[in-house]
Amino acid sequence: MVQVPVEAYDCDVLVVGGGIVGLSTAYAITRAAPGTRVTVLEKEPGPARHQTGRNSGVVHSGIYYRPGSLKARYAVRGAAEMVKFCAEYGIAHAVTGKLIVATEREELPRLHALVQRGRENGIPVRELGPAQIGEYEPEVRGLAAIHVGTTGVCDFVGVARQLAQASGAEIRYGARVVRVDRRPERGVAVLTAGGDVVRARVLVNCAGLYCDELARLTGDEPGVRIVPFRGEYYELARPELVRGLVYPVPDPAFPFLGVHLTRGIDGGVHIGPNAVPALAREGYGWGVVRPRELAGTVAWPGSWAIARRHWRHGAGELHRSLSKGAFLQAVRRLLPGVEGDDLVRAPAGVRAQAVLRDGTLVDDFLIREGSRAVHVLNAPSPAATASLPIGREVGRRVLSMLGSVS
What we know:
Elements: E1 11-16, H1 20-32, E2 38-42, E3 58-59, H2 70-89, E4 93-94, E5 98-102, H3 108-120, E6 125-128, H4 130-136, E7 144-148, E8 152-154, H5 156-167, E9 170-173, E10 177-183, E11 187-192, E12 197-205, H6 211-218, E13 225-236, E14 245-248, E15 260-263, E16 269-277, H7 291-299, H8 301-309, H9 311-322, H10 324-332, E17 343-355, E18 366-370, E19 373-378, H11 387-405
Parallel strand pairs: 1-2, 1-12, 2-9, 5-14, 12-19
Antiparallel strand pairs: 3-8, 4-8, 5-7, 6-7, 10-11, 11-12, 13-16, 13-17, 14-15, 15-16, 18-19
């Protein structure tokens, strides 16, 4: 192996992506191996501008996820760690608990299955009848519900900022990566749009909506493509109608949780998200179209397979996107007293969903390694909740890789 002088590198580890997962990774590495030089490149002028800063702010319990999966293990562990982290650094948070409510008889078996899954994942769950629902949420109606006490809300943008500060890493904002030159015997060199070159021993890909493209720039075939789904939200003009968090029973065949009600740390109540295909990776509205990115999505065979498999579900999501009345009807299943004027458009988010060639939606966190590179290729919700354990796992792989290339 060619020995390269340490001074030839600008850093030991170069993290691409300044969302909560990238910053948690930097934090984990410097905590586990003090003295390791870490640089984070983020194309935006500040941290957490995309998935991290555009979600509903929920600290998920882990009840939905397959027992033994990374999502289940990291969400349960991460929720407790996130609350502790917020308390330690004075970041706004609250452990509110949430209701998952069945409004149709055919949803009852799925609700009971969630009770069992929660218990398998070590999550305390309380089953409720119609009258007991009213004790938690007087305006909510349902046939049955479960109460999950470990769910909460927090300021994930504040968490990201604190991780950046506490990591001691060099954070470079406005640094979009345009080229990667990886040489297994030497290291990785990255060129930014501003003309800067950063040389590192190992690269970490936490590029979120662009993680598959960055993997290919590095020379690794990710085996998946990111298909962006826009999550559309409304804000409730009468927040007093909702005390906490209220969710429908999700469809296990689809990775989205359905339109739910979330009282945030600011006291406002968000309703959503609706989930529709985005016409750009950062397509936060129907008017945002990037032809190259859209062509890449359309060219991926998995996109057509999704459309064939889930067209009925997708048609409903599109209808609710284009019709406020249809969205209102979905909300009224849980909250009958809501009126059309109560719904005020709020900023949307985009979910970076990894999809296999056959149209399978990757349902777990996906982390893969290449030569001198670690790629985080699927980290949608509950990644913010699970970001501290995800960061440690990525950091463990990076430090092992550093040891092998020293």
